[in-house]
Amino acid sequence: xxxxxxxxxxxxxxxxxxxxxxxxxxxxxxxxxxxxxxxxxxxxxxxxxxxxxxxxxxxxxxxxxxxxxxxxxxxxxxxxxxxxxxxxxxxxxxxxxxxxxxxxxxxxxxxxxxxxxxxxxxxxxxxxxxxxxxxxxxxxxxxxxxxxxxxxxxxxxxxxxxxxxxxxxxxxxxxxxxxxxxxxxxxxxxxxxxxxxxxxxxxx
Length: 204
Hints:
By secondary structure, the protein is mostly beta strands. The chain is built from 1 helix and 13 strands. Strand 8 (122-139) and strand 9 form a beta hairpin.
């Protein structure tokens, strides 16, 4: 008897969850902090971090649906706005000392969001993404002044909950590893960590 009740209860939870996580396009906005760990060792062995922590905003849109019982799968595109880095540091290069900075200003990406419903109207999700971001190099030595668009791989975890009607709220933590590139004559591989809180509007 207890087994039957448990099965019925679990079935009702799944039906409720599937009803609240409907197949629908959605749009949203997120805001939070972006921390850049952009570490470089110059020709004199000095370890420098050109990154920093700043506020960032993301505008996104996507589509998702339940694919099996409590398993949900979404795809999402996003435009990231904000400004990280930009601190001027003194760097020892093969041609002498110079003052320079690295600044990340904008980017975009595409993600897959596999998710699992843990409670009616609430699910946890993973973010698996490819991103492309714009970096600007500025230096007292004009030779190093360049714009770079770097590709990166992003992974993260988050949770989303239905507030009321067509609105959800979400929170997530993401890590992005960009491809290495040459900065002031040395190789650098930028890493970003971000914490975002967002509002989702489902157009169902």
